[in-house]
Amino acid sequence: MTQPTTLGAGEARTRLHELTVIDVRTPGEYASGHLPGALNVPLDQIRRALPDIRHAAERGDILVVCASGARSENACRMLAEHHIAAATLSGGTGAWAADGHDLHRPQGAARAAWGMERQVRFTAGSVVLTGLLLGILVHPAFQLLAAGIAAGLVFSALTNTCGMAAVLAKLPHNRPLAADLDTTLAELRDR
Length: 191
Hints:
Blueprint: E1 5-7, H1 9-15, E2 19-23, H2 27-31, E3 39-40, H3 46-59, E4 61-65, H4 70-81, E5 87-89, H5 92-98, H6 116-137, H7 143-159, H8 163-168, H9 178-190
Parallel strand pairs: 1-5, 2-3, 2-4, 4-5
Helix pairs in contact: 3-9, 6-7
C-alpha cells in the first residue's frame, strides 16, 4: 500500500485558503485547538462522511489532520480505497503549533480535553498498574492484565493501529453530537 501524500506545516499554511481541511480527531481534541477552517469528522465517522468528502474533493484538494499524523494517514488510506485523493499534515497539529502557527478554538470551549494518545497512555498504565497490584495482593493470575496490555502495545506499534484508541473513541466525551456532525457534513457539501 502506498503512503499518502504529506504536506509540511509551512506548505499547508500557504495553501490553507485552497484546501478543505478535515480534522479526524475526537470532538474534545478538536475543541482544544485545530487548524483554521478545519472541519471535524472523527476517524470512526469517515465512512459516513464519504459522499460529502468526495463532493468536496471534486471542488478542491483535501488535507486530513490529526494530533501527530498517524490517524490522518489511516484516514487518507481509507479515502484512497474509495478513490478520494487526500494529503495528510506531516506531524499533525503538534507540528503545526510547533512551527508557530495558531490553532483555533471554538467559542465556548470549556476546557481542553486530553488527546487520544494521552487517554491511551493513562488507560494502559492504569490497567497495567491494577493488574500488577492485584497480582501481588490477590492472585498472580491478575498479572495477565499487564501482559495483555503489553502485547496490545506491541501489536499497536507493529501495525500502526490502536485498538484501545478505537474503544476509547466510543466514550461519550469523545463522540460528536449528531447535530454537530450533520452540520459539518452539510458544510462539506457546500464546499
